[in-house]
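Per your request, structure below.
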């Protein structure tokens, strides 16, 4: 007959805890591929939004030599759609499929922001600003 050592059962428990510990970190939503896709997509989208928050005013200052008043109007123009349409569109969007709306909104924003560098070679931005603000020193 074989006698177990006094620490054998405790050692097995310790090995079991160490072996399964990494699996506890990735439990819950981290094991669902749909959540991981959503999380990765929203992370990339938020990263792009933060770059735009910095790059759009810098583009206005460097390329268009925007003044402080112009920068204020630019900030107002970025905030105005949220103030005017946020509540109404939000109620309507909640009734639609969220995945499709997330993709549509991110693609629409990418197209609009991608048009800014494309308009630069044609000097379309400078003409747009000079037509809207005739007193601007361009």
């Amino acid at each position: 007959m074989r006698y177990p050592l006094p620490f054998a059962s405790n050692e097995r428990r310790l090995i079991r805890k160490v072996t399964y510990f990494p699996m506890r970190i990735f439990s819950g939503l981290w094991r669902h591929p749909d959540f991981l896709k959503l999380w990765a997509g929203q992370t990339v989208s938020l990263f792009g939004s933060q770059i735009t928050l910095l790059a759009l005013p810098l583009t206005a200052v460097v390329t268009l030599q925007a003044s402080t008043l112009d920068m204020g109007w630019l900030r107002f123009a970025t905030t105005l759609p949220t103030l005017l349409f946020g509540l109404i569109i939000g109620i309507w969007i909640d009734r639609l499929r969220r995945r499709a709306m997330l993709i549509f909104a991110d693609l629409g924003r990418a197209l609009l922001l991608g048009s800014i560098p494309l308009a630069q070679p044609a000097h379309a931005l400078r003409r747009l600003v000079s037509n809207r603000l005739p007193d601007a020193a361009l």
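Residues 73 and 79 are 10 Å apart (CA to CA).

Regards,
D.
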